[in-house]
Amino acid sequence: MASERPLLIPSPQTLNTQNRHIAMSTFADLIKSTPRNPDPSTSSRMDRSDLVENSSHEGVSALKSSSVRSISSIQSKESVTFTVDSFRGSGSKPVRYGSGRTESEGFGSSQKEISDEDARLVYINDPLRTNERFEFAGNSIRTGKYSVLTFLPRNLFEQFHRVAYIYFLVIAILNQLPQLAVFGRGASILPLAFVLLVTAVKDAYEDWRRHRSDRIENNRLASVLVNGQFQTKRWADIRVGETLMVSANETLPCDMVLLSTSDQTGVAYVQTLNLDGESNLKTRYAKQETLSKMPEKEGINGLIKCERPNRNIYGFHANMEIDGKRLSLGPSNIILRGCELKNTAWAVGVAVYAGRETKVMLNSSGAPSKRSRLETRMNREIILLSFFLITLCSIVSIFAGIWLRHHRDELDTSPYYRRKDYSEGNIENYNYYGWGWEIFFTFLMSVIVFQIMIPISLYISMELVRLGQAYFMIRDTTLYDETTNSRFQCRALNINEDLGQIKYIFSDKTGTLTENKMEFRCASIWGVDYSGARNLMPGEQDGYSVKVDGKIWRPKMTVKADPELQWLLRNGQKTEEGKRAYDFFLALAACNTIVPLVTETSDPAVRLVDYQGESPDEQALVYAAATYGFMLLERTSGHIIIDVNGERQRFNVLGLHEFDSDRKRMSVIVGCPDNMVKVFVKGADTSMFGVIDRSLGLEVIRSTESHLHAYSSLGLRTLVVGMRELNVSEFEQWQSAYEKASTSLMGRASLLRAVAGKVENNLCILGASGIEDKLQQGVPEAIESLKQAGIKVWVLTGDKQETAISIGYSCKLLTSRMTQIIINSTSKESCRKSLEDAKAMSKHLLGISTQNGGSGVLPTKVPLALIIDGTSLVYVLDSELEDELFQLATKCSVVLCCRVAPLQKAGIVALIKNRTDDMTLAIGDGANDVSMIQMADVGIGISGQEGRQAVMASDFAMGQFRFLVPLLLVHGHWNYQRMGYMILYNFYRNAVFVLILFWYVLYTAFSLTTAITEWSSVLYSIIYTSLPTIIVGILDKDLSRRTLLKYPQLYAAGQRRECYNLKLFWLTMTDTVFQSVVVFFVPFLAYRQSTVDGSSIGDLWTLAVVILVNIHLAMDVIHWTWVTHVVIWGSILATFICVIIIDVIPTLPGYWAIFDIAKTGLFWLCLLAILVAAVVPRFVVKVSSQYFSPSDVQIAREAEKFGIPQEFERTEVEMNPILDHPREMTR
After folding, report:
1. Are 1129 and 1117 spatial neighbours (Cβ–Cβ below 8 Å)?
2. What residue stretches are annotated with the P-type ATPase C-terminal domain (predicted)?
């Protein structure tokens, strides 16, 4: 779950699907209420007499009494934004990236009334009645894809989605027809059967593991209320409507609405680690109306009307009717399957969604599949090979027709087309279908004989190579993050090679470039800047602490404090500045959803208070408040307890308006010990200054604005804090409006937002805070290496412009040499003019660099940096201005997008992806980054502080941004080079074999007779030549890791597609044709006048082509290992053994043929002549090209090979220019 970053630096989005229920009560109820502690044991520890007693407030008794409603914990709005839109995105309505109001259209179920037809009716503790109308899904889950009966047909159906498999199936079927039988019927099916079998075994093993996991999950036990008693029941047997009890540290078996908990106020703490990867505790609440009921004794009867099952794990819309009351239910009242109960003895709830209808199961489909760009381009070559195959078959069939026409009088006795069978006493006719049909059958038979021109083994070879590459990437210790104890994750095996062709990187800032570990640095309070924080001096007390029940409680983390501010808080409380400072830190301690947890230490007299929350920002603010003497000790659904400089005070929480991306702020309404009711509000400056009453302190506001600008320039995250006091009438008005909004069946979220907007007004500014989010280790160096590699790094963040620019300089993304183009527009026309002016400026600067080059001065490109905000993008994306932005952005070295919404991030990625053929990579750590991660060609998730939504939606995951350098420059380069070579080698390997068969057909009256046995033809791609190419594809390294990291420019080889392109394909095919001519005609000419039979010379051709293709591979291997030696030379040995075995079987054609031909010296001379004649020309061309026009990679390899790294390092090596302009679309 993403952090609450928007509380500080919001992005311009307008979505809030959460429907919270705010704790509120009449003044009288709250003032007279007895304090209740969520932990009974805490009552003995905390001295309640120290709490300031509340007394009646004047005029409050007239207010109506209402039950205390529960406060819901804040959820991440950024994550909600993506989740809701991702669900909508699959519909017919197109996703608009630029619209600032786009997400507001996706309120989901909170915006529409739940009718009886659309609702799920759940009768509490009555599963029979609940399932009477509709039989809801049971709680048994099944993640396995197959059963024993469906495995074979379904697996085959899925595998035959590959067109190549259908092609080989058709070939095998054709070979079964008597008229077209060229190979043995079993032999023709073997290649396809082998590939299908290997894939099926892999799929079966994976599915067996899924079934095993399902059995374990379904057989777990839970406590279910049956006949007035809680009894153990298998998870699989739980039904919707049943009442369950979950104990501490147990996992929820289904989605259930909370009815009661061990806490007196109905709070339950849950950990959603299994759901979204977050370890921070979340708070969920039971309604007061059900809290006091004991299910075992009096029972709980009622009706829950909720929305139908959906994937939105952050939203829930329902109503509960109990004891004649209708209560609204929201996300804070439901606990989802997979969550774990923590710090709560027990919780009771009713199952509303079970089994496959639970939200976690509905979200288990995974990220959308991506396809490798290299594999996409490979299809072009496969089509060319298909045309080549058709050409060969057409040549054979046409010339066969001509031959039949010329020899039509000799067909009765022709050795290839005998129409008469003279083997028996009675002469019989062979099947002869006439001249036209014979041509057609010859064409089909040619397709069967030349079928391996399309390499079926290539697909499974690519899968195995990618698997091996992924293994070594995962095992790479340089990609291991010690701080989080996380290894590199390869979540998508089909795009490994794309890592070597990246041109654009789109990066989030917070948590990706920075650590997302917030530290309070400074504050501006009532116009005074307090930024003189310092570390503790020797002998000083280790931060603030309080004494509770004889134990010393102190915050888990300490914050650098400003001595002047500390003195003011302790001694200047009666001054105006002191009062404002008091309210400022009270706001920091109260306006949040932080839960304080007390942990033991090695010292039994000391306890540490660990502030658990979903937002690192909020945690930093609460730790800062504790350092300055405002220590949050306890939080329940109705009140908080804060120790204020040694005086323990109780504040009743009357209401809480959480953050939403329209308001860009959050607020809490508290009843103070002095009987005053205050509204504390914090949020981004852009939203706060609009609701602050400037008449209350204009000079303070101006000073605060100046301090904010200074903080942002230092790269700090900023936050503005304000407050106001509520009188009785204002509170009554707010309470009435809130109750009406929270129980509304339509548009509840927008109504609650309107209520919050009315109370968050006419505020008195208290001050602002500055929080530092430090850069991750190695980020500046990583960005510099990526820029040297020709990769453009764009940063897309929700932060303020000043903050983003400061971080840009810190991480070396921006430099002093760059000319900055800043676009901050508030209308479409102003945005259009800004883009036109920026384009003119860029042309002028480029013109200056060109003139310098023409005047004898070396031309130097003027680096440009484009900085644009989210408001401008609202008018640019999804409009005709997109092309203007694209033309401008691609001329810039750096692009910084500030204040952008999640969908705008995806829109920026689409801007490049849809207009160029360059590869894009998106990297982020939060749920607000998921949209761009899935939009990019390669998506990488950072295992950071914001949960694991980005990781779960990514193709690869790692712990630090700096790992991009070894991932792309080393593994990406290796993977691309290996896979590109392997594809071309497979085309060559199969084509040379087919062409040998083709040349033979030309000398056998075009009759498709083959000298090479059918079993050798089948085993050629399976045993003879398959393993070496797989091993080389996994282990070969054209350059060492050290060289690739030292010279990032070498990465540009992948961007230029040096290892796989159409030119290389045609050169490979040309070499293939030449080598096939050598392999065929050397033995043909040598044995032309001899009496050797076809099987013998066929064995010679088989051995010659296998040795040749393996020698060909050995010539290109750069990094030799013992495994490489074994597979290459072992494959040649295995071929000899297989040929011998085939020839010693009397029932097969060519019995003893290898022994007859191998005993002559001519046989071995032919093998040697073939290898020399076929390989030497290729060797000469290869050496010549590397000598006269070497590539960057070849130059670097020479330096490695001859061991002259020192000289190489001292020499400036001129490398090929890195493409700076975008590639035009070719796909």
Report:
1. no
2. 951-1191
Burial of 600 (0-12, 13-18, 19+ CB in 10 A): exposed
Task: Count, in order, helices (H) and strands (E) of the chain.
Answer: 41, 37
Would strands 546-548 and 551-555 be described as parallel, antiparallel, or unpaired?
A: antiparallel
Asked if residue 358 lies in contact with residue 405, where contact means CB atoms within 8 angstroms, the answer is: no
Question: Active-site residue 508, yes or no?
Answer: yes
Domains 120-139+238-364 and 517-533+544-773 equal at CATH topology level: no
Indicate the pLDDT class of residue 545, thresholds 50, 70 and 90. confident
Cβ proximity of 1 and 62 under 8 Å: no
Are 274 and 340 a contacting pair, CB within 8 Å?
Answer: yes
**Residues pairing with 1159 in the sheet:** none
- Dihedral sign of CA atoms 1084, 1086, 1088, 1093 in order: negative
**Cα pseudo-dihedral 783, 784, 787, 789, rounded to 10:** -110
Which one of 29, 255, 276, 508 is the catalytic residue? 508
CATH dotted code for 517-533+544-773: 3.40.1110.10
CA proximity to 868, closest of 929, 826, 813: 826
Distances (CA, A) of 531 to 437, 619, 714, 1126: 93, 19, 12, 67
Binding site per annotation, positions for Mg(2+): 508, 510, 925, 929
Q: pLDDT digits over 1112-1148, tens only?
A: 999 999 999 999 999 999 999 999 999 999 989 988 8
Classify burial at 995, counting beta carbons within 10 Å of its beta carbon; exposed 0-12, middle 13-18, buried 19 or more. Answer: buried
Rounded Cα–Cα distance for residues 180 and 812 (Å): 68
Binding annotation: 508-510, 618, 659, 682, 717, 797-799, 899, 905, 925, 928-929
Token digits of residue 667: 């607020």
What is the rounded CA–CA span in Å between residue 569 and residue 585?
9
Neighbours of 956 (CB within 10 A): 26
Spatial distance between the Cα atoms of 1074 and 1089, rounded to a whole number of angstroms: 24
Residues 6+ apart with CB under 8 A from 829: none
Q: Return d(Cα 328, Cα 306) in angstroms, integer.
A: 10
Structure confidence by residue, pLDDT tens digits, 960-988: 999 999 999 999 999 999 999 999 999 99
DSSP state of 1022: I
999/1077 Cα distance (integer angstroms): 8
Report how far apart, in Å, the C-alpha atoms of 9 and of each of 52, 84, 687, 719, 779 are: 36, 21, 10, 8, 22
CB 304 within 8 A of CB 320: yes
Domain boundaries, the chain: 120-139+238-364, 489-512+776-844+861-958, 517-533+544-773, 982-1203
Binding residues for ATP: 508-510, 618, 659, 682, 717, 797-799, 899, 905, 928-929
At 1052, which helix (H) or strand (E)? Answer: helix 1052-1055
Which contiguous run of DSSP H or E holds residue 342? Answer: strand 340-342
Place of tokens 């037809």: 117
Residue 1118's identity, in one-letter code, is: I
Buried b (16+ CB within 10 A) or exposed e, 1013-1049: bbbbbbbbbbbbbbbbbbbbbbbbbbbebebbbbbbb
CATH number of 489-512+776-844+861-958: 3.40.50.1000
How far apart are the C-alpha atoms of 377 and 984, rounded to whole Å? Answer: 12
* H or E segment and range at residue 643: strand 639-644
Count of residues making up the chain: 1227
Q: What is the pLDDT of residues 56-96, one digit of tens each?
A: 333 333 333 333 333 333 333 333 222 223 333 333 334 44
Q: How far apart are the C-alpha atoms of 466 and 460, rounded to whole Å?
A: 10
> Which residue in this structure is represented by tokens 């090695």?
602
Question: Residue 232 — pLDDT band, cuts 50, 70, 90?
Answer: very high
Distance separating alpha carbons of residues 978 and 867, to the nearest angstrom: 38
